[in-house]
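[09:14] KT: can someone run the structure on this one? pasting the chain below
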Amino acid sequence: MSKKIIIYTDGGSRGNPGPAGIGVWVETLGKKYGECIGVATNNVAEYAALIFGLKKVRQLLGKDKTRQYEIECRLDSELVVKQLNHEYKLKEEYIQKNFIEIWNLTLDFKSVTFYHIPREENFVADALVNEALDEQVKQKSFL
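[09:31] RB: done, structure tokens below
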């Protein structure tokens, strides 16, 4: 019997591009992560959050156990979900590179699925993005 892990990811930037952050909530394992990623667009941040989330789950489980798990990724970015589910073409080179990295990460698990959810259902990951960005602003004001 396989096990399922649900992760919520979000990425955002203040300005587009602008200071950007990611938020990842591994609901099943009760783990939360938020960090700044420098200057980026919203799309880059969304992909960065998902990549971070998949890598973090792999790290938490240990590489030898990952094949037992189904990973369900919930994102509020309809664009990213449709790109990952082959509904939209991948025109930009950076999106193609992110897609390949995510595809390679999915090979570590039994299965990985991507679901679009309303923003209201992604409030934990969204809050983690904003906390990381707020903290960065606060730290820079003391420099």
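[09:33] KT: thanks! The chain has a mean pLDDT of 94.
[09:34] RB: yep, looked fine to me
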